[in-house]
Amino acid sequence: MSGTRAWHLASRPSGLPDMTNFELKEVELEPLGEGTVRVENRWLSVDPYMRGRMNDTKSYVPPFEIGAPLQGGAVGKVVESSSPDLAVGDTVFHTMGWREQAVGEAKHFTKVPAMGVPDEQWLGNLGLTGATAYFGLLRVAEAKEGDIVFVSAAAGAVGSAVVQIAKAKGMTVIGSAGGAEKCAWVRELGANAAIDYKAGPVVKQLMEAAPKGIDVYFDNVGGDHLDAAFACARNQARFAICGMIEDYNTGSNHAFRYIMRMIAARIRMQGFLYFDFLSDMPDFYRDMGGWIASGKVKSRETVREGIEAAPQAFLDLFSGANMGKMLVKL
Amino acid sequence: MSGTRAWHLASRPSGLPDMTNFELKEVELEPLGEGTVRVENRWLSVDPYMRGRMNDTKSYVPPFEIGAPLQGGAVGKVVESSSPDLAVGDTVFHTMGWREQAVGEAKHFTKVPAMGVPDEQWLGNLGLTGATAYFGLLRVAEAKEGDIVFVSAAAGAVGSAVVQIAKAKGMTVIGSAGGAEKCAWVRELGANAAIDYKAGPVVKQLMEAAPKGIDVYFDNVGGDHLDAAFACARNQARFAICGMIEDYNTGSNHAFRYIMRMIAARIRMQGFLYFDFLSDMPDFYRDMGGWIASGKVKSRETVREGIEAAPQAFLDLFSGANMGKMLVKL
User: Fold this and answer.
1) pLDDT in tens, B32-88
2) CATH, domain range B2-123+300-329
3) How far is C-alpha B131 from the geometric centre of its chain's CA atoms?
4) Alpha-carbon distance B252 to A201, whole Å?
5) In this prediction, does ipTM exceed 0.90?
6) In terms of CA atoms, which chain B residue is nearest residue A270?
7) Which residues of A touch B276 (CB under 8 A)?
8) Residues sharing a CB contact under 8 Å with residue A249, sequence separation 6 or more, in sequence order
9) Fold of the domain built from segment(s) A2-124+299-329
């Protein structure tokens, strides 16, 4: 048996988590049994949805357990294999992140397709965040050419993918982000307009940016952004509800002044999770792979170095420290 | 030219309307031109949606104008006709309510089908309220046999139709209403359980009444009821958003503590208006006519007498004074 370091949940946070909720500890790795592999992680993903798993509540994935290693998306290299399905040197995606090495059955590791993209993209535009953007925008919200699309957290991992997919598909895009630097990047990504939510009320800015209203809202934020979307929705508008990061730590206590517009405008709101679309991943790889190859979709990462950096990278998501995907490089 | 009395909008209410917003005045009736008819109203409908038309805001129907007669659903008898399409004595439905007599082109009056039902049902279960219940439940929420359905304002005009349609289609139904008498009637209509929202928090009562959660929520109320539905929704739950009467006078200032469940449970919320389904009215008449004939759907009206009673009947909708459909009999 050999050891590796893994981040453990030390205690459940109440409200915003802090470093005391995490502990880096040595764990023993199982010896390799028949059909298993050992993977050395190279990139770890930290994502807002992980906050939900720190609560002791039933949801679509089980909560993290106190005293146990955390889990999350990771990309690594196979360094030892007793499975015919994976060879030493293969690059794999898996969900045993927050640790240096992982051992498990080969079926829990997915060899990434040979598409000539940097490894870290399998945690970004070709991974969970890209797929979330793709299926949320095109399947859930049924956004189509000519639509006016509003997306919040547009400088984030999912939002920046939404902006670019929407532009690749011929839509008009308004993105919101916090601060001038992020807004400039959102415009660089192709957005027709960018709203700085720190600079004034979202509803007022959205009414100015979209005087004809919006057909689609891709929600990563909830709260005032969602209310602004209610205010500006055109008839038959579709909202894809992907995240409500404003509420992850505090719980929701927003009043929605404009929610009644759902009726007159016949707004459809739909919550979703990307893994309901797993059977359609080939469509996603085909389209997203094409957009990346042609330069229509670009990636940007905010990278922290070393296993020690993981919890702070996660915490920084909630103060909006990232541009694009937040990753930890081992 | 001859005269008739009609209720006019005297002023726009701010918040809850009162009698000062209404004025009963004589209006001149146009002389009958070619293709027109004169109708003596027998039944007037007062409905919560009319509150929205008292505001000076753009919506799916134009606002009422100050100093002009109010409009609304009505059933009457043709008393004079210069149109080949309608004969004296025909019973017609039309939207020139809030008045004793109406004159207009025959195309604005719909002869009610000969189904042997009392005239007032064309303003209730066979009218706008029944069609709203039918299309909202079956088309918008796509409720089906075996579903667990929650409906608010279940003793109201639309809600009582929802309860009965859902039972006729083999669903489990939980209705909410204000007070023991209304709840008893909701159970009489066939609901498996009735929640008295005046007796305690809706979310707690709904969790007890639907320990397995709900598949469908038919919303007439908004606010705490909608939040309770978020809390109790099962995966892939569908919400038909028909009305938010709690907010019509005050504007919405509710916090939705459980709205984030939209994501994990993949809830779909859809606002709707019955008139988007006008082309499917034959389906509605066939099904609803059958249920009425077989006794599966029963009607109950709260009837006020005389044109003078109309505004107070309307105002009483907001204190929940009605059981079933609120009507004014002339």
Assistant:
1) 999 999 999 999 999 999 999 999 987 778 899 999 999 999 999 999 999 999 999
2) 3.90.180.10
3) 9
4) 18
5) yes
6) B268
7) 266
8) A13, A15, A16, A17, A51, A318
9) Quinone Oxidoreductase; Chain A, domain 1 (3.90.180)
